[in-house]
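USER:
Before I trust my own judgement here, I would like a peer's view. Write it directly below this note and I will take it from there.

ASSISTANT:
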Amino acid sequence: MSIQNLYDGALHLCRALRVFEDVQMHIEVSDDMAAYARLIATERPEQPLGAPFDPALQDLDGGKAYFISGRNPQGELVHTQALRLLDLGDGSVADYLRRNFHDFPPPGVPIDLANSAYNAGPGARRMKGRVVYHGEIWIKDNPAWRGRGVIDHLSRFALLTASMHWQPDYVFGFIARGKARKGLTERLCYMHYDPYALAWSLEGRNQPITGNLAWMANDDIRYMMDVPLDEVSAA
């Protein structure tokens, strides 16, 4: 990463932290994923820990993952998101997910893995090299945090820290199509997506959960750092 990019990144980090200070959210970043698992178990019961970030299921040691948490002035957990590095080399995200998509199920719902499917899109086939998976995005259902554009800044903060920390070639995540159609992809600052990438079959139900694969290249992230975010966004 060039000196100019580091300088620009530091300026953007300072700008984001000022936004969080204005809304009275204290942000912490840590790569202790065992501590993250304990945090979720005790303070985020409404959304259980996702399999991609469960240290009991994945090898997350050695700086392979980190999480971001946000607390209100009373010390209550109000936000989480996490990122994980996948060093794919010459293999593509499409190849990786064909073998491993079952490692990325939506948490807290009974999934019928045998009848679930992954559909590789053009973006997934393009992504190779150092790739970051971005997930665990949660913000407490409270008017103090929702409907104020806070999630836009939180996602951009995560993309920026990933870009500076790992210098990845790409970043991707999954978004349920219902939420994506309401504009969540853009609010999370993603510029591209592969629609209908995942179809999760639910035990005892006929209708699957469908999801888009949202993705960014590193130069997209640098571009998004200079795009102004609205002061107020729809919840």
